[in-house]
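INPUT
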Amino acid sequence: MSRPEHVAPPELFYGETEAEKYTRNSRIAAIQAEMTLRAVELLNLAEDRPHYLLDIGCGSGLSGEILDEDGHVWAGLDIAPSMLDIAIDKDVEGDLFLQDIGQGLGFRPGTFDGAISVSVLQWLCNADKAENRPRYRLQRFFSTLFMALQRGARAVFQFYPENDAQVELIMGIAMKCGFTGGLVVDYPNSKKARKFYLCLFAGQAPGGEKHELPQGLSGDGGAAGVAYTQARIQGAKRGKKARKPAKNSVEWILHKKELARKRGKEGVPLDSRYTGRKRKPRF
Amino acid sequence: MRLITHNMLKCHVKNCTDPDKQFPLRFKDAKLEQIEAERNDEFLVRMLPRIEWAALATTANELGIELPKEVPANPADDDAFLQGLHTAIMEMHVKEGSMLCKGCGHEYKIAKGIPNMLLAEHEI
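OUTPUT
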């Protein structure tokens, strides 16, 4: 399967049409919502009170809407203007920024109670411009993010690593910037439902409890994810059948005559209310 | 962009490191819009230590929003103060204009409420 980050840089890939597609597609939206909920769960926030969160790669606000529902106050960053335009149209409550996270974040130390990010990190490993050095960009990103988080806060990144080397590169740089934590893999035995969450801890809150890496979910779990695919394929099949009228039916005859006229055939009978009607039995 | 987020924002140009100048970013030709939001006292009180009050008060005054010079001794019980704070940082959105860094002079343009934080090649 082709990976979007191999096609074009994110600000071009998520142009107007792709952004529109991404937001309108209910399957993508459902998967994004699921991953956002899981990321928020992994953040391990104290319940029943609003937090100040950062959404890295907020896109069209699919994840932001979920943060809104939970009553959190958030700021979102994204590099694709078309995606942000859709977020504006949807009236999400968070503050949006047009920002390249590889250039570092400009937030004061200790600003956020946590950060989430859905399907973004793999884009940072791209060198799609001459001045882009992935290693340097990752380092600048993680070091400024570490600063921007409260001590003891967590950052959870759902991402699609291309290979083990990429995971190692990302984790190595994050650790160098002061984070602890590791990789949480949900449904490791299911090829379709398998999801990677990089769960990072920004130091430890004074007197706070010690961080423990959460367990990944097991089983084949993503039944929902598979069901969507099934439904879509079935829908497509049914759609094709429905479009084709039954043979010898009135619609079928009209369609054939229409085609014949279009092809310039002469002597095609006129359409009338008797077209395709059965004659009465004579005897 | 709300003022609560502006108060957290500093210039992130690589060589702009003077902490006195890179924060706060100064608004230029800012157009404001008030969008009502639900008030949450607990959140406001919890955010207070994180807010640089002097910077917030100056910025708010420049934009024509009234805020006291000092935080009152007991902010959690001061309803008028909390209402003022809520209006200033949670309801006021800067829609158009730009933000200027005093250190390096970088201008972050704001369009449709979204600040453009992209940097040029020599700034990263």
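end of record. Chain B touches chain A at residues 1-2, 4-5, 8-12, 14, 23, 37, 40, 42-43, 46-47, 50, 52, 90, 112-119, 121, 123-124 (CB under 8 Å).
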